[in-house]
Amino acid sequence: MTMNKNQKHLHEARKLFLHELTNQLSSMEEHLEHYANEQNLQSAQEFYRIAHTLKGSAPIFGLMAIGKVADLLVREFEWTQMDTRKRLAPDQIGMVNMLIGQLKMEQSFSKEEILHEEKQEEYLLLNKQAYRLLLIDDDDVLRTYLVKRLSQEGYQVEEAANVEEAKQLLREHTFDLITLDLMMPPQSGYEIFDFVRNDMVLKWIPLIVLSGRKDSEDKVRCYRMGADHYVTKPFHFEELEACIYRLLTRTQHYEQMAFRDPLTGVNNRRYFDHQLQVELAQTRRQQEPNSLAFIDIDYFKKINDIYGHHIGDLVLQGLSYKIQQNLRATDLLARYGGEEFVIAFPGTTAEQATMVLERILAQLQQDPVVQLDGQNFHITFSAGVAEWDEMMSKQKWMEQADHAMYEAKRQGRNRVVRAKLNMEEPQNNLDSNKKKRLLLADDDQIIRSILKARLAHPEVDIIEAADGEEALKVMRKNRPHLCILDGIMPKMDGFSLLKIIRQDQNLRKMKVMMLSHRNSEGDIVQGLSLGADDYMSKPFSMVELELRVKRLLHLQ
């Protein structure tokens, strides 16, 4: 399978990282030589900063070996952050030189792997021979052209000049896709529709109509008879080929659109969003109460960091099971993303829904959500409940429940909060009609550029800062809605900056997500206790980061 969009981004980011690594290695050698000759503390601290950046960044791009070697270098120079009187012995400097050599070797290996991936990608793009296409068209010139071009793309292509030839080929061979011309005198392409539609196997084959007729009646008739796409002549070959490839690979997209969350077995977000609209229409008709609840597991990131994702998955499964035990058959539960769940309570007031959620919380305080190898795992959650009223849109209803959930977190977590009418948005009444402002504060330029590309959104303006002091100036000038803050930066580290933010009357309501290689329980607790709204340890998942950012900014 060829690379998808995310894989291509990661591939390009890895190339950029390895290219920049050459400059970083050169700087490390210079700082090490300067320290060895003059015992210069500033050079040692700069060496530590570069090694620390590599340790946090490399695993994000899948370069685990480089990250491990960088971690060894960080440990050798950890003293520069605590005891500035310490000095490295000559044998330690020799060890550091050896580790730098190992980094160069890993860099070389990684570049070879990238070249191999690019060659493999090129091969996969050209190798589409697994797909067999049937072209049905009485225009000899166009049919010959399409057969030639699609064959060059790697497809297996059969052709038919009339309806009877096409039926014969469909009986004798298996095809993955059909292109069909509607007008083939004296017969009509609609005969193929009838032939295919009445066959239990053939009716599932993707079908593209190629027609010189532009009137909507033909298009509507074709779609109703089972066409997957309608292309009007003349057309660009590249567009047709893209359409063909998209239809051939749609199976994987259908799997993504499945209505069940594969981990917990409950409904997924796509199904919930659709079904909530149905529930809302019924609520309007019957004039009955309906309540919505958002649930977010408290400190779930810490569970993953300390115990591993396997335990995190078990916690998600355990909580979803516990919730289901307390719901009625008419209630609608879904995993909304990450550690967040959502429940619709038809025929239920906010007070009644709150009682259900508080009952679940009480059970979680008594009983472990997971028991494994003699160890009990207890959790709590923060929940927000909003009751629908006739003046609310679906979007406003969901926002009210979401805002209530964040209010529960601000009040100390482990609680259920009911939304109040026109509850203030967590961003402290910053103008929601304007674009959201996102500040990326990280001294690693590559990380900033990758995050900027990944988090690009039409409703978001992204600002950058390379150190703590610059970030503070940017905040005071631009008032971001959210700051993604690196834990260790030049001039002022992220934890010190976070403390200033929460003490500043104009900045204290700004959302802050901490990014740091520090994943010990103490560091996570420190970040959250200083007021971070979220905390992610490097290396982190880009997909998970994007979901968390969208949630903090209340983006769709």
UniProtKB/TrEMBL annotation:
Alphabetized UniProt keyword annotations: Phosphoprotein
4-aspartylphosphate sites (modified residues): D181, D486
Annotated Response regulatory domain residues: 132-248, 437-553
One Pfam family matching this protein: Hpt
Domain GGDEF: 288-421
SMART domains: GGDEF, REC
Protein name according to UniProt: Response regulator
